[in-house]
Amino acid sequence: MKVIEGSVTAPKGYEAAAAAAAIKYKDRTDMALIYSQVPAAAAGTFTTNVVKAAPVIWDRDIVYHSPKAQAVVINSGIANACTGKEGLDYCQDIAHKAADMLDIPANSVLVASTGVIGMQLPMDRMKRGIELLAQGKSSSLAAGDEAAHAIMTTDTVSKQVAVSLEIGGKEVIIGGMCKGSGMIHPNMCTMLSFITTDAAISKELLQEALSGSIVDTYNMVSVDGDTSTNDTVLLLANGMAKNPEITEKNDDYARFKEALDYVNTVLAKKIAADGEGATALLEVTITGAADKAQAVTLAKSVVTSSLVKAAVYGHDANWGRILCAMGYSGADFDPDKVDLFFESAAGKIQILKDGVAADYSEDEATRILSESEVTVLADIKMGSATATAWGCDLTYDYVKINADYRS
Protein backbone atom coordinates (compact mmCIF):
# COMPACT_ATOMS: atom_id res chain seq x y z
CA MET A 1 0.00 0.00 0.00
CA LYS A 2 1.20 3.50 -0.77
CA VAL A 3 -0.26 6.95 -0.19
CA ILE A 4 -1.05 8.80 -3.41
CA GLU A 5 -2.34 12.23 -4.38
CA GLY A 6 -6.08 12.88 -4.46
CA SER A 7 -9.26 11.80 -2.72
CA VAL A 8 -12.66 10.65 -4.03
CA THR A 9 -11.76 11.02 -7.72
CA ALA A 10 -8.48 9.09 -7.40
CA PRO A 11 -10.08 5.66 -8.00
CA LYS A 12 -11.13 4.75 -11.54
CA GLY A 13 -14.56 5.82 -12.71
CA TYR A 14 -15.39 8.55 -10.19
CA GLU A 15 -16.22 12.18 -10.86
CA ALA A 16 -16.89 15.06 -8.49
CA ALA A 17 -17.98 18.68 -8.54
CA ALA A 18 -18.59 21.67 -6.27
CA ALA A 19 -21.10 24.49 -6.62
CA ALA A 20 -22.05 27.72 -4.87
CA ALA A 21 -25.79 27.50 -4.19
CA ALA A 22 -26.00 30.15 -1.42
CA ILE A 23 -27.80 27.73 0.90
CA LYS A 24 -26.36 29.51 3.93
CA TYR A 25 -22.93 30.78 2.92
CA LYS A 26 -22.78 33.66 0.45
CA ASP A 27 -19.09 33.68 -0.38
CA ARG A 28 -18.10 30.07 -1.01
CA THR A 29 -19.11 26.74 -2.52
CA ASP A 30 -21.61 24.81 -0.42
CA MET A 31 -22.72 21.82 -2.49
CA ALA A 32 -20.77 18.80 -3.71
CA LEU A 33 -21.37 15.78 -5.92
CA ILE A 34 -19.68 12.40 -6.06
CA TYR A 35 -20.62 10.35 -9.11
CA SER A 36 -19.63 6.86 -10.22
CA GLN A 37 -19.66 6.25 -13.96
CA VAL A 38 -21.09 2.79 -13.30
CA PRO A 39 -23.39 1.52 -10.54
CA ALA A 40 -21.48 0.75 -7.34
CA ALA A 41 -21.95 -1.40 -4.27
CA ALA A 42 -22.70 0.85 -1.29
CA ALA A 43 -22.05 0.51 2.43
CA GLY A 44 -22.82 2.95 5.20
CA THR A 45 -22.72 3.60 8.92
CA PHE A 46 -24.81 6.23 10.64
CA THR A 47 -25.32 8.21 13.84
CA THR A 48 -26.44 6.44 17.00
CA ASN A 49 -28.32 9.56 18.11
CA VAL A 50 -32.05 8.83 18.52
CA VAL A 51 -32.66 12.16 16.73
CA LYS A 52 -31.69 11.34 13.17
CA ALA A 53 -31.57 13.87 10.34
CA ALA A 54 -33.66 13.25 7.23
CA PRO A 55 -30.62 12.40 5.05
CA VAL A 56 -29.61 9.68 7.53
CA ILE A 57 -33.05 8.09 7.25
CA TRP A 58 -32.96 8.34 3.45
CA ASP A 59 -29.43 6.94 3.14
CA ARG A 60 -30.04 4.00 5.47
CA ASP A 61 -32.92 2.93 3.24
CA ILE A 62 -30.79 3.21 0.08
CA VAL A 63 -27.79 1.40 1.60
CA TYR A 64 -29.88 -1.38 3.11
CA HIS A 65 -32.42 -1.92 0.33
CA SER A 66 -31.09 -0.68 -3.03
CA PRO A 67 -28.81 -3.03 -4.97
CA LYS A 68 -26.51 -0.25 -6.17
CA ALA A 69 -25.71 3.43 -5.67
CA GLN A 70 -24.23 5.83 -8.18
CA ALA A 71 -24.23 9.37 -6.78
CA VAL A 72 -23.99 11.34 -3.54
CA VAL A 73 -25.33 14.90 -3.29
CA ILE A 74 -24.04 16.87 -0.30
CA ASN A 75 -24.85 20.31 1.05
CA SER A 76 -23.30 22.33 3.86
CA GLY A 77 -24.86 25.12 5.91
CA ILE A 78 -28.21 23.48 6.75
CA ALA A 79 -28.41 20.03 8.34
CA ASN A 80 -31.98 19.09 7.33
CA ALA A 81 -32.39 17.70 10.85
CA CYS A 82 -35.56 17.99 12.97
CA THR A 83 -37.45 19.01 9.83
CA GLY A 84 -40.23 16.40 9.90
CA LYS A 85 -41.90 14.90 6.84
CA GLU A 86 -41.06 17.99 4.80
CA GLY A 87 -37.34 17.43 5.32
CA LEU A 88 -37.62 13.77 4.31
CA ASP A 89 -39.65 14.71 1.24
CA TYR A 90 -36.86 17.12 0.32
CA CYS A 91 -34.39 14.21 0.32
CA GLN A 92 -36.61 12.49 -2.20
CA ASP A 93 -36.83 15.68 -4.27
CA ILE A 94 -33.03 16.00 -4.25
CA ALA A 95 -32.62 12.37 -5.33
CA HIS A 96 -35.13 12.73 -8.17
CA LYS A 97 -33.55 15.97 -9.39
CA ALA A 98 -30.07 14.39 -9.39
CA ALA A 99 -31.45 11.27 -11.07
CA ASP A 100 -32.94 13.36 -13.87
CA MET A 101 -29.74 15.34 -14.37
CA LEU A 102 -27.46 12.27 -14.29
CA ASP A 103 -29.81 9.82 -16.01
CA ILE A 104 -29.65 7.28 -13.18
CA PRO A 105 -32.33 5.74 -10.91
CA ALA A 106 -33.48 7.88 -7.97
CA ASN A 107 -32.94 4.95 -5.60
CA SER A 108 -29.23 5.06 -6.46
CA VAL A 109 -28.81 8.64 -5.19
CA LEU A 110 -27.54 9.18 -1.64
CA VAL A 111 -27.86 12.57 0.06
CA ALA A 112 -26.04 14.21 2.96
CA SER A 113 -26.39 17.50 4.80
CA THR A 114 -24.44 19.32 7.48
CA GLY A 115 -24.96 22.62 9.26
CA VAL A 116 -27.64 24.27 11.38
CA ILE A 117 -30.34 22.02 12.85
CA GLY A 118 -34.05 22.86 12.45
CA MET A 119 -34.00 24.86 9.21
CA GLN A 120 -35.65 23.70 6.01
CA LEU A 121 -33.54 23.47 2.87
CA PRO A 122 -34.16 26.18 0.22
CA MET A 123 -35.14 23.74 -2.50
CA ASP A 124 -35.04 26.21 -5.36
CA ARG A 125 -31.37 26.87 -4.62
CA MET A 126 -30.70 23.18 -3.96
CA LYS A 127 -32.11 22.19 -7.36
CA ARG A 128 -30.13 24.89 -9.13
CA GLY A 129 -27.05 23.66 -7.30
CA ILE A 130 -27.66 20.10 -8.52
CA GLU A 131 -27.86 21.39 -12.08
CA LEU A 132 -24.50 23.12 -11.67
CA LEU A 133 -22.96 20.01 -10.11
CA ALA A 134 -24.14 17.74 -12.92
CA GLN A 135 -22.84 20.15 -15.55
CA GLY A 136 -19.49 20.64 -13.83
CA LYS A 137 -18.57 17.11 -12.73
CA SER A 138 -15.07 15.93 -13.62
CA SER A 139 -12.75 13.02 -12.90
CA SER A 140 -9.82 15.34 -12.18
CA LEU A 141 -8.07 15.39 -8.83
CA ALA A 142 -8.87 19.11 -8.68
CA ALA A 143 -12.59 18.31 -8.80
CA GLY A 144 -12.21 16.03 -5.80
CA ASP A 145 -10.36 18.76 -3.94
CA GLU A 146 -13.09 21.29 -4.74
CA ALA A 147 -15.75 18.89 -3.48
CA ALA A 148 -13.86 18.41 -0.21
CA HIS A 149 -13.82 22.17 0.34
CA ALA A 150 -17.52 22.54 -0.47
CA ILE A 151 -18.65 20.26 2.39
CA MET A 152 -16.84 22.23 5.11
CA THR A 153 -18.75 24.15 7.81
CA THR A 154 -16.59 25.34 10.72
CA ASP A 155 -13.72 23.20 9.40
CA THR A 156 -10.58 25.24 8.82
CA VAL A 157 -9.00 22.79 6.36
CA SER A 158 -10.29 20.22 3.90
CA LYS A 159 -9.71 16.58 4.80
CA GLN A 160 -8.66 14.15 2.07
CA VAL A 161 -6.55 11.03 1.51
CA ALA A 162 -5.99 8.33 -1.12
CA VAL A 163 -4.01 5.08 -1.23
CA SER A 164 -3.24 2.44 -3.83
CA LEU A 165 -2.58 -1.26 -3.37
CA GLU A 166 -2.44 -4.42 -5.45
CA ILE A 167 -5.22 -7.00 -5.32
CA GLY A 168 -5.29 -9.97 -7.67
CA GLY A 169 -2.63 -8.43 -9.87
CA LYS A 170 -4.62 -5.21 -10.36
CA GLU A 171 -4.06 -1.75 -8.90
CA VAL A 172 -6.88 -0.86 -6.52
CA ILE A 173 -7.34 2.68 -5.20
CA ILE A 174 -9.27 3.88 -2.16
CA GLY A 175 -9.90 7.61 -1.78
CA GLY A 176 -11.78 9.58 0.83
CA MET A 177 -12.87 13.01 1.99
CA CYS A 178 -14.64 14.06 5.15
CA LYS A 179 -15.76 17.05 7.15
CA GLY A 180 -15.93 17.47 10.89
CA SER A 181 -14.85 20.02 13.46
CA GLY A 182 -17.47 20.40 16.19
CA MET A 183 -20.28 18.35 17.77
CA ILE A 184 -17.81 15.49 17.61
CA HIS A 185 -18.04 12.48 19.91
CA PRO A 186 -17.53 8.70 19.76
CA ASN A 187 -20.24 6.56 18.20
CA MET A 188 -19.49 8.70 15.22
CA CYS A 189 -19.44 12.42 15.29
CA THR A 190 -20.68 15.50 13.42
CA MET A 191 -18.93 14.19 10.51
CA LEU A 192 -19.66 13.27 6.97
CA SER A 193 -17.17 10.90 5.38
CA PHE A 194 -17.27 9.71 1.78
CA ILE A 195 -15.00 6.93 0.57
CA THR A 196 -14.70 5.65 -2.98
CA THR A 197 -12.90 2.63 -4.33
CA ASP A 198 -12.61 0.92 -7.69
CA ALA A 199 -12.25 -2.46 -5.99
CA ALA A 200 -14.55 -5.30 -6.94
CA ILE A 201 -15.99 -6.56 -3.65
CA SER A 202 -19.36 -7.95 -2.64
CA LYS A 203 -21.83 -5.60 -0.97
CA GLU A 204 -21.93 -7.83 2.11
CA LEU A 205 -18.16 -7.80 2.66
CA LEU A 206 -17.99 -4.08 1.83
CA GLN A 207 -20.45 -3.37 4.64
CA GLU A 208 -18.65 -5.69 7.03
CA ALA A 209 -15.30 -4.04 6.28
CA LEU A 210 -16.71 -0.56 6.89
CA SER A 211 -18.62 -1.47 10.04
CA GLY A 212 -15.49 -3.05 11.48
CA SER A 213 -13.28 -0.16 10.44
CA ILE A 214 -15.18 2.63 12.18
CA VAL A 215 -14.77 0.96 15.58
CA ASP A 216 -11.08 1.87 15.84
CA THR A 217 -11.22 5.05 13.74
CA TYR A 218 -14.17 7.47 13.75
CA ASN A 219 -15.61 5.96 16.93
CA MET A 220 -12.38 6.79 18.75
CA VAL A 221 -12.63 10.53 18.07
CA SER A 222 -14.02 13.17 20.42
CA VAL A 223 -13.84 16.95 20.27
CA ASP A 224 -16.60 18.09 22.62
CA GLY A 225 -18.71 15.16 23.79
CA ASP A 226 -21.72 15.88 21.56
CA THR A 227 -22.98 13.13 19.24
CA SER A 228 -24.60 14.60 16.12
CA THR A 229 -27.87 13.98 14.31
CA ASN A 230 -26.24 13.72 10.87
CA ASP A 231 -23.20 11.45 11.23
CA THR A 232 -22.74 9.43 8.07
CA VAL A 233 -19.96 7.39 6.49
CA LEU A 234 -20.63 6.17 2.95
CA LEU A 235 -18.41 3.79 0.98
CA LEU A 236 -18.87 3.10 -2.74
CA ALA A 237 -17.12 0.30 -4.66
CA ASN A 238 -17.62 0.30 -8.44
CA GLY A 239 -15.38 -2.64 -9.44
CA MET A 240 -13.59 -0.76 -12.22
CA ALA A 241 -10.16 -1.94 -11.04
CA LYS A 242 -11.17 -5.32 -12.53
CA ASN A 243 -9.62 -7.31 -9.70
CA PRO A 244 -11.14 -10.74 -9.01
CA GLU A 245 -14.22 -9.90 -6.93
CA ILE A 246 -13.65 -10.25 -3.21
CA THR A 247 -16.40 -12.56 -1.99
CA GLU A 248 -14.75 -14.18 1.01
CA LYS A 249 -12.43 -13.21 3.84
CA ASN A 250 -9.18 -14.18 2.17
CA ASP A 251 -5.84 -12.39 1.75
CA ASP A 252 -7.36 -9.98 -0.76
CA TYR A 253 -10.02 -8.98 1.78
CA ALA A 254 -7.37 -8.53 4.48
CA ARG A 255 -5.35 -6.21 2.22
CA PHE A 256 -8.44 -4.22 1.30
CA LYS A 257 -9.48 -3.91 4.95
CA GLU A 258 -5.99 -2.78 5.99
CA ALA A 259 -6.03 -0.03 3.35
CA LEU A 260 -9.57 1.03 4.32
CA ASP A 261 -8.53 1.20 7.98
CA TYR A 262 -5.62 3.43 7.02
CA VAL A 263 -7.85 5.81 5.07
CA ASN A 264 -10.36 6.04 7.90
CA THR A 265 -7.65 6.51 10.53
CA VAL A 266 -6.11 9.39 8.59
CA LEU A 267 -9.49 11.06 8.14
CA ALA A 268 -10.44 10.53 11.80
CA LYS A 269 -7.21 12.15 12.98
CA LYS A 270 -7.75 15.07 10.61
CA ILE A 271 -11.16 15.64 12.21
CA ALA A 272 -9.70 15.58 15.72
CA ALA A 273 -6.85 17.90 14.79
CA ASP A 274 -9.32 20.39 13.29
CA GLY A 275 -11.61 20.49 16.32
CA GLU A 276 -13.28 23.85 16.69
CA GLY A 277 -10.76 26.30 18.12
CA ALA A 278 -8.12 23.59 18.52
CA THR A 279 -4.40 24.28 18.57
CA ALA A 280 -3.25 20.69 19.12
CA LEU A 281 -4.20 17.13 18.22
CA LEU A 282 -4.41 15.02 21.39
CA GLU A 283 -3.73 11.28 21.01
CA VAL A 284 -4.29 8.98 23.99
CA THR A 285 -2.91 5.43 23.87
CA ILE A 286 -3.57 2.87 26.59
CA THR A 287 -1.28 -0.16 26.65
CA GLY A 288 -1.01 -3.17 28.93
CA ALA A 289 -4.78 -3.53 29.26
CA ALA A 290 -6.44 -6.80 30.17
CA ASP A 291 -8.66 -6.61 27.09
CA LYS A 292 -9.61 -4.26 24.24
CA ALA A 293 -12.81 -3.04 25.94
CA GLN A 294 -10.87 -1.88 28.99
CA ALA A 295 -8.30 -0.07 26.86
CA VAL A 296 -11.02 1.66 24.80
CA THR A 297 -12.89 2.81 27.92
CA LEU A 298 -9.77 4.31 29.48
CA ALA A 299 -8.56 6.00 26.29
CA LYS A 300 -11.96 7.58 25.63
CA SER A 301 -12.28 8.79 29.22
CA VAL A 302 -8.97 10.65 29.05
CA VAL A 303 -9.46 12.12 25.58
CA THR A 304 -12.93 13.47 26.47
CA SER A 305 -11.91 15.07 29.80
CA SER A 306 -12.39 18.84 29.63
CA LEU A 307 -9.74 19.29 32.30
CA VAL A 308 -7.19 17.19 30.39
CA LYS A 309 -8.00 19.07 27.17
CA ALA A 310 -7.59 22.43 28.93
CA ALA A 311 -4.25 21.33 30.38
CA VAL A 312 -3.00 20.42 26.92
CA TYR A 313 -4.01 23.87 25.69
CA GLY A 314 -2.05 25.39 28.55
CA HIS A 315 0.95 23.06 27.92
CA ASP A 316 0.60 22.00 31.55
CA ALA A 317 1.84 18.54 32.59
CA ASN A 318 -1.07 18.13 34.99
CA TRP A 319 -0.93 14.33 35.14
CA GLY A 320 -3.37 14.19 38.05
CA ARG A 321 -6.19 15.06 35.64
CA ILE A 322 -5.26 12.12 33.43
CA LEU A 323 -5.17 9.63 36.27
CA CYS A 324 -8.44 11.05 37.58
CA ALA A 325 -10.12 10.61 34.18
CA MET A 326 -8.92 7.02 34.07
CA GLY A 327 -10.24 6.48 37.58
CA TYR A 328 -13.82 7.54 36.86
CA SER A 329 -13.97 5.74 33.49
CA GLY A 330 -15.61 2.66 35.02
CA ALA A 331 -12.70 0.43 34.04
CA ASP A 332 -10.99 -1.45 36.86
CA PHE A 333 -7.20 -1.09 37.14
CA ASP A 334 -4.53 -0.62 39.80
CA PRO A 335 -3.44 3.05 39.89
CA ASP A 336 -0.28 2.04 41.75
CA LYS A 337 1.00 0.26 38.65
CA VAL A 338 0.41 2.97 36.06
CA ASP A 339 3.30 4.38 34.03
CA LEU A 340 2.51 7.62 32.18
CA PHE A 341 4.40 9.39 29.38
CA PHE A 342 4.02 12.51 27.24
CA GLU A 343 5.37 12.40 23.70
CA SER A 344 5.53 14.76 20.71
CA ALA A 345 7.94 15.83 17.98
CA ALA A 346 9.91 17.56 20.76
CA GLY A 347 10.62 14.29 22.58
CA LYS A 348 9.26 11.85 25.14
CA ILE A 349 9.17 12.12 28.91
CA GLN A 350 7.99 9.85 31.72
CA ILE A 351 5.67 11.67 34.10
CA LEU A 352 4.45 8.85 36.34
CA LYS A 353 6.12 5.61 37.41
CA ASP A 354 4.13 2.97 39.28
CA GLY A 355 1.47 5.52 40.16
CA VAL A 356 3.90 8.05 41.64
CA ALA A 357 5.31 11.22 40.07
CA ALA A 358 8.61 10.58 38.29
CA ASP A 359 11.60 12.88 38.57
CA TYR A 360 11.01 14.98 35.45
CA SER A 361 11.64 18.50 34.26
CA GLU A 362 8.53 20.71 34.12
CA ASP A 363 10.23 22.84 31.47
CA GLU A 364 10.89 19.81 29.29
CA ALA A 365 7.33 18.59 29.77
CA THR A 366 5.99 22.00 28.75
CA ARG A 367 8.19 21.99 25.66
CA ILE A 368 6.85 18.56 24.65
CA LEU A 369 3.26 19.64 25.26
CA SER A 370 3.73 22.79 23.16
CA GLU A 371 3.75 20.89 19.85
CA SER A 372 0.78 20.71 17.48
CA GLU A 373 0.45 16.95 18.04
CA VAL A 374 0.69 15.58 21.58
CA THR A 375 0.45 11.94 22.71
CA VAL A 376 -0.43 10.65 26.17
CA LEU A 377 0.81 7.08 26.76
CA ALA A 378 -0.45 5.11 29.76
CA ASP A 379 0.70 1.56 30.54
CA ILE A 380 -1.56 -0.11 33.13
CA LYS A 381 0.41 -3.42 33.19
CA MET A 382 -2.51 -5.84 33.19
CA GLY A 383 -2.18 -7.55 29.81
CA SER A 384 -1.36 -6.98 26.14
CA ALA A 385 -4.42 -5.12 24.81
CA THR A 386 -4.15 -1.57 23.53
CA ALA A 387 -6.40 1.21 22.18
CA THR A 388 -5.91 4.75 20.86
CA ALA A 389 -8.35 7.66 20.94
CA TRP A 390 -8.02 11.09 19.35
CA GLY A 391 -9.23 14.51 20.41
CA CYS A 392 -7.91 18.04 20.73
CA ASP A 393 -7.26 20.74 23.27
CA LEU A 394 -10.05 22.94 24.63
CA THR A 395 -9.59 26.63 23.89
CA TYR A 396 -11.35 29.96 24.29
CA ASP A 397 -12.19 29.89 20.60
CA TYR A 398 -14.36 26.78 20.97
CA VAL A 399 -16.84 28.78 23.04
CA LYS A 400 -16.67 31.75 20.67
CA ILE A 401 -17.39 29.60 17.63
CA ASN A 402 -20.34 27.81 19.19
CA ALA A 403 -21.84 30.85 20.91
CA ASP A 404 -22.84 32.38 17.58
CA TYR A 405 -22.95 29.36 15.22
CA ARG A 406 -26.49 30.11 13.97
CA SER A 407 -25.83 33.77 13.18
> So what's the overall shape?
globular
CATH superfamily of the largest domain: L-amino peptidase D-ALA esterase/amidase
Distance between the termini: 45 Å
Nearest-angstrom radius of gyration? 22 Å
Task: Provide the CATH architecture of the largest domain.
Answer: 4-Layer Sandwich
Structural category is alpha+beta
Biggest β-sheet description: 9 strands, mixed
Strand content: 25-35%
Mean pLDDT: 93
CATH class of the largest domain: Alpha Beta
Q: How many domains, as an integer?
A: 2
Provide a descriptive summary of the structure in words.
The chain is of the alpha+beta class and 407 residues long. It has two domains: 272 residues, L-amino peptidase D-ALA esterase/amidase; 123 residues, ArgJ beta chain, C-terminal domain (Ubiquitin-like (UB roll), Roll). It contains eleven helices and 15 strands. The strands form two sheets. Strands 1, 2, 3, 4, 5, 6, 7, 8 and 9 form a nine-stranded mixed beta sheet that branches. A hairpin with a 2-residue loop joins strand 12 and strand 13. The protein is globular and about 70 Å long. The mean pLDDT is 93.
